[in-house]
Every structure is written in C-alpha cells, then in structure tokens.
Amino acid sequence: AEKPSAIAICITCVDALLGTDMERVCRDCTEKTGVPAYPAYMYALTREKRLPPMGLVRKSVYSLLKPQKRVSTACNLLGFFSAMDDGCELYPLLKSAGIKTVGELGRCQTFSEYEALSKANFNLVLNAESRYAAQDMQERLGIPFIELTRLYRLEKIHRQYQLLGQAIGANLDDSAYYQQTAETVQAFRAKYGALRFAVGECLNADSFELALALTEYGFSVPEIYGTVGERNFIFIKKLAEVSPDTRIYSNLSPSMMQYERDCEIDAVIGNDAMYYHKDLPGIGFQEEAQPFGYRGVDLLFAGLDATLSGGK
What we know:
By secondary structure, the protein is α/β, with parallel strands linked by helices. About 40% of the residues lie in helices and about 15% in strands. It is built from twelve helices and eleven strands. Strands 9-8-7-10-11 form a five-stranded parallel β-sheet. Strands 4-3-5-6 form a four-stranded parallel β-sheet, with helices on both faces. A two-stranded parallel sheet has the order 1-2. Helix 3 (about 55-60) packs parallel to helix 6 and helix 8 (about 175-190) runs parallel beside helix 12 (about 295-310). It is globular, with a radius of gyration of 21 Å. The relative contact order is 0.11.
C-alpha cells in the first residue's frame, strides 16, 4: 500500500490529563515508519483561553515545513484550512504589488506544494487563530508576518489595504472594488429598506463586527448570538454607542434551549441564528470558500438578496 505523506495524531483532553508525551510518540512513529508524524493538540477545555485548540492545530499543520531559500515574489495566506473565494480582490491587489505566487494551505494538492510554502517572503495572517502558527514560522523559518482582519465595514477594509500597502512598500489601489461594493450595499438598502437582522456566530465573520457593519449601513440588529472575547470587545463597545438596544445571547448558555423570539426580526445570518428562527428567511454564510475584504461584503448581500427575493 502507498505510504501517506504525513501523519497527524490528534490529541484530546484525555491525553493531556494522562500526561501522554505525544512529541515522543510522534518521533518514534516517524523513526519506525519513515513518514513524518506530528501531534495536533485539540484540547476543548482551552476553547476560551488565549491559545484555543484551533490555534494549536494551525501551528501543528505548518510544523512540518522546513527552512528553504525565500522567494521575494511569494507570500502565503494563513488563517483558514480552505482557500479564499476565487473572486477576492486580495489576489489582484497582491499581483499589482509584484507578488507572483500566493500560497494557501487549502490549495495544496500535493505534499511538495505544501513544502513550497516555506519559500514565502512573508505571511499574511487573515485569522487571529493563525497568529501562533505565524509566530512559529517566523521563529523557525525566518518568515515575517503581517496580520489583517476579516472586516465587513467598507471604510475599515479600505484603511486596512492602505496599511498593508505601506507595510510591503506598494500602492494598493482598491478604489474600483470599494466603489463597486458600496453600490452593492446601497442597492440592497434601497431595495429592502431598513431590515432588522439577527446575527449568529456560526458564520464566516465576527458576529459583533458584522452587526456593527450592518448597523452602520442603515440596518438594525436586535439580537446577536455569540461568544464575547478580547478580540471582539472593541466591536461591542462601538456597537453599544450606535445600537444600545441590541441584545447579546450566549450560545454556551443552557438557557438558550428555551429561547423564544420576543422582538421583530426580518432576516437572519448564521447557521445558529437560522436554527433559532426557522420561520424567517436567512443565510448560513458559512461556505467553504472563505470570504474576505470587499468580496466578502459582496457575497453577503448577494446571498441575502437571493434569499429575500425567493431564490436559493
């Protein structure tokens, strides 16, 4: 039988409590089989800690990369296990800055393609859960990183691209993308009016940042279902100023089993929100192809328009 390219040994809380030395287990496995093995720590008990399980798993996934000569025209996108949506403007913007190769874990078809990720001149971190992996790659491979945030407010997206351009020494002209997306939002608002949304956390967005964006676009968000943490507190603080009546519910609370709607809601976003409001139109917005930047906003409103107009 054909040998696998690598082996990941996934470890749960039980192994942590037993004190299992999985680093040694993986070393022994590699020595005996000749196949690289690495531990993937998946401790659910650390979900709300500074370094949650998905942060550790992402570090593990990149741990088999070895130092190589870096290529000045190559960069990696870190943050998601699947690739970004093909229509994302970040690709052409990076190309305009002289970046010829954009590596993504989700687009690697072979182990050799995976190994080529260590040739990148820098990493772009698009999800805070990949920061630990980027820090490890910087220490082990000498690849610096720049951190971006998935946002749905146009002004913030524009500002972030300006800062990225300054960091890599290039002028990233996003004016055409900004204008097109602004027109999309305006057209949706004109067509449906000041809709009232419920926003969940099982979606490709930060619940609170998305709720803030919708509020700034002229909609209202009576309810949010999400987990409050350090990363999104800044959005909650701003949301409290512009939408003080918005209520936040925790999906972790057992009381949500008895949830009943007691306010007016027109549509919902997020798979958990759709569960709570089965009778309302909505979108899960949790597709495998990852939305980002202006493309993310376009996909959001395209999905809502299709649902509200009766399409799938």
